[in-house]
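Hello again, I could really use a second opinion on something today. For a while now I've been wondering how a particular protein folds. Please have a think about how the structure follows from the sequence. Here's the protein in full, and shout if anything looks odd to you:

***
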Amino acid sequence: MHIEEKIEHDIDPQLQDEITRLRNDCFPEDSKERSYFKQLPHFRFLAFEDEILVGQMGIDHRMISVGNSVFSIFGVIDLCIATSYRNRGIASELLEQLSALASEKGIDFLFLVADDHRLYQKNGFQFISTDLTWLRIDEHINYGVGRERFENELMVKQTGKKIWPDGPVDLLGYLF
């Protein structure tokens, strides 16, 4: 298996189609005729076995505010592994490579939204409970700003020297 980091605009249409199929197979309840759910990621990590795409993870690079602090984050989007390749450590390897890149590039935290937390807890992510502000978008339409309390879905992993403070979070963009 090998993992490639690809900037989104360098992904050709054939590979976009493969990512779309993989994403839809892994998230059938959110199936779309595109390779992303809400918005294109900035870049992706793609896992291949021989020439077959077996895993992918979109990453959004942005600034967010937490209370009176501002942080640089990598937001993890649509991490998915093909069914027949699960439980082989591929997802953990994708997260490890992203953590290493974040540390190398001075990114403060990895940030994600998840219903199933086991993989992320195993890889050093912590729960945060907070009031969250974000841009509500759905099917390429902006519905304004959302504000809501999140208790059991948001997770962060420290990759820099800064400590996550208590305080409301403003994603300064859409919810991953």
Summary: The domain at 2-174 is CATH 3.40.630.30 (Aminopeptidase). The chain has one domain: 2-174.
